[in-house]
Amino acid sequence: MERVIGRGRSGTVFLARHLGLDEERAIKRVRRTESGFIQEAALLKRLRHPGIPIIYDLEIDENYYYLIEEYLCGESLYARIERTGSLQTGELIRLGIELCRIMNYLHSFKPNPILYLDLHPGNLLICREQLKLIDFDQAALASLSQERSVCYGTKGFAAPEQYEGGTLDERTDIYAIGALLYYMGTGHAPEGEIKAGQGSCRGDLYILMGRCLRIEKKERCQSVREVLEALEKLEARIFAERHIPLLRIAVAGSRSGIGVTHTALGAVRYLRQKGVSCLYREQNDTGAVRRLASWYGMVPDEHGIYYMDGLALKPRYSDVVQLEQPVFEVILDDCGTRLQTVLDGEYDLILFVCGLQPWEKEDSLRAIRFLGAEEGLQILLNHRKCGRDYLPEEVRHLRYLRLPFLTPPFDAGGRRGAGK
Questions:
Q1: What is the DSSP string of 215-230?
Q2: Which is nearest to 380 in space by CA: 272, 223, 299, 263?
Q3: Is the pLDDT of residue 277 over 80?
Q4: 3-state SS of the chain: helix, strand, coil percent to 5?
Q5: Matching CATH number, 76-242, of 3.50.50.60, 3.40.50.720, 3.40.50.2000, 1.10.510.10
Q6: Which fold has domain 3-70?
């Protein structure tokens, strides 16, 4: 263990380092008198979502339980608002959508939905601009939520029924979602009537907040899916009002294994971190998106899109499948080695990944000649420094850049770890 990084109602969180893997871990230490902790650990162990920390192991000694989990380095939502005062509408809606996707996963969990019951700014981390939900102390299976003798909440974010000892259900979490939306827009928790025009938010967003914050549960939004769809419609409306032109990008490569998908996902993450909404579309037959989704245990939304670690990824579907597509500022197509697909599309920018090693050069030159006349072509040389001297005179006039080292777009390696 290296140092204390947090303290909560039930225990202390330490930063530790796995000696064998040389990776950081968070260790939550809880006294064994906390009888419900084993149930919490067992519950968390079953969850597989990019917005929820990975649980690796549970250790026990004479006095404590030790829950070993993924270490998340980021800024809490509370710290972000303390620093900025409030969020602009676009960022608020983006984080609200991410929160709703996490909560929809919990509320849809099979065979028994999970209630979180303590949503507040301190339990949300922004890691590389992706939202993460931590600290499941108060979480409970919906079917067992009424068996608790004590249920804590956080003032300003807890629903009225939590103060009054009423029945708890999914709408209890929906109240907290509304309170968090309000908090992000105004810089403080809601008190009394919600009025449009406060903070940096627009009126239609405050209407949605008000529907979440009704005292009577039957008057609130009835599901997280309902809140999510309302936020997505708001995002599309704002996009249309701004009249932002759609940018279409193709990423292709000279051969399999040259790094097309890695480059495409890296570009999507970069745009995402810059606040640009981007859809990755798989326009090849590798099946990488479905394999990645299977690894994370994710399911697509009604548009056929998987949301993983804040990235919107759409696998390749048969031409007979017709799905409505949400609005994005950028569409990025991973064309693999399908150069004809690139020529047939109307792209604003073509990122072509190739290499100039002896065994790569022939494929690279053939593809460069094939695409050379395309407007917007940007050639990215992988695996070596930019060396146009290695190229024939006929193609040296084209624009070449060396592809920098790109970190893995997903921390999938950690999900395979079984160590402590």
A1: SSGGGS-S-HHHHHHH
A2: 263
A3: yes
A4: 35, 20, 45
A5: 1.10.510.10
A6: Phosphorylase Kinase; domain 1 (3.30.200)
Q: Which two three-digit tokens encode residue 88?
A: 């602009």
95-104, 143-152, 261-270, 273-282: segment of lowest average pLDDT: 143-152
Measured from the Cβ of residue 295, the count of other Cβ atoms closer than 10 Å reads 14
| 384-392: Cβ within 8 A, 24+ apart | 384/355, 384/356, 384/357, 387/356, 390/356, 390/361, 391/356, 391/365, 392/365
Give pTM, 2 decimals.
0.70
**In what order do the strands lie in the sheet containing 23-31?**
3-7, 11-18, 23-31, 64-70, 55-60
Q: What is the pLDDT of residues 204-254, one digit of tens each?
A: 898 999 999 999 999 999 999 999 999 999 988 887 777 666 899 999 999
Class in CATH terms, 247-402 = alpha beta
Mind listing the pLDDT tens digit for each residue in 103-131? 999 999 988 899 999 999 999 999 877 89
